[in-house]
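Record passed on underneath.
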Amino acid sequence: MLVYYYPPPIRGIGTAVPGSASDYLRRQWIAGAWRRSSLFEKLVFGLSIIAWWPSTVLHAAYLAAVLGPSRQAVSGKSPFRQFLEQLSVAALWMVPPKWYYIFEFYHDERRAHAGEYLQRVQTKPYIFDWLVDKVARKDPRWPFANKAYFSMLCERFDLPACKVIALADNARSFMFFPPHATEFPPVDLFIKVKSGRGGFGAEKWTYRDGRYHSASGRMLTEAGLKAYVLRKAWFAKRVVQPCVTNHSDLADINLGVLATVRVVTIRAEAGEVEATHAIFRMPQLRTACVDNLHAGGLGVAVDLETGRLRCATDLGCKVDSRWHDVHPATGARIEGRVLPYWQDVLDLARRAHSLIGDRVVVGWDIAILQDGPCLVEGNGKPDVDMLQRHYGQGLGETRFGKLLALHLAGRLAGNPLNGRPPAEVLPRRDLDGAALTGSGTPQ
């Protein structure tokens, strides 16, 4: 719920550069959130505005007390000064206290550019959603919300991807892929929630001596594992996939878990697809079964030209959050390492975007295997926090932010293309449901 209402859609007192992409996106978020919301949502906005400053002051005081001492060691600023700076960026740019630490605004040079940072409350529930053509999409289904369907699309378009073996639903039955299969294969399996986020509910089962073994030491037969997955599916549908293994060059930093790269692609002015950012993700602890940052993993910004890694860090909300040039568990070098098959990774992300999803923006999770890159999943509303934290730069004035503003302006003006070739666009309706003519005029 917080992603929709916190911070509330009101302007701070900061003055942005006139005509800048970040200022345009911020203004359109505020206006659009109010204009397109229901009466109930507007009431919640009103309550959020009333609660904004009391909650901000209390949260800032709490974070300054908990995180302030450790950040004083790197910034030289006392917890009280950090508290005051949290209130300052909250007043100027409506940045909640938590993001003061995520984006490391205790460094003066970053705080000076706070107005260029996009917030997830602007993008995930609003701007990204407004850019989805819900009427004239070339695929009326939602490939990123259905991992089994995504797997079938990848096979149809000859895109290398982690295949789905089976889908367990809450009706206590299995749907196997391909349809003639009926059993789990005798291989290591990865089981995850069908519509899960952040690695929640993910489990790895290792096949050994005719049994499946969990990380916690549990051992099940094939029939026992099927029964276990069906019980789990009562609460949320489960997807069963074969485990795949990273390229051997990554073995000293992936801790036996599949490490992935989040590559963010966006349609450019003429419809071509660009990759603008990439974050390599890996587990931080040996007990982890996923690489996700929300599950405690580490992320590293990747140089798009070379595939070279920078320093790694987590989401920045822990007392011991810091930057690592070597892996904290293995001591293996991170900074300066070059990812294998890097140009193939970018090519796969761009090709997938041109074939799947019909979106302006997509975040692709790609695993680098011994024989090349492999799609794991796509995200139609990719997270902007980790991009900005790990690159140390707000997205608003980057190529990504400028293209996002360009497409939003076109969408609001009635342009149905959003960078898509004209042949892909069907007769459609605008954001408020009015049919559009070829000229983009509501009728």
Remarks:
- The first strand starts at residue 166 and ends at 169.
- Residues 183-242 form one domain.
- The two ends are 35 Å apart (CA to CA).
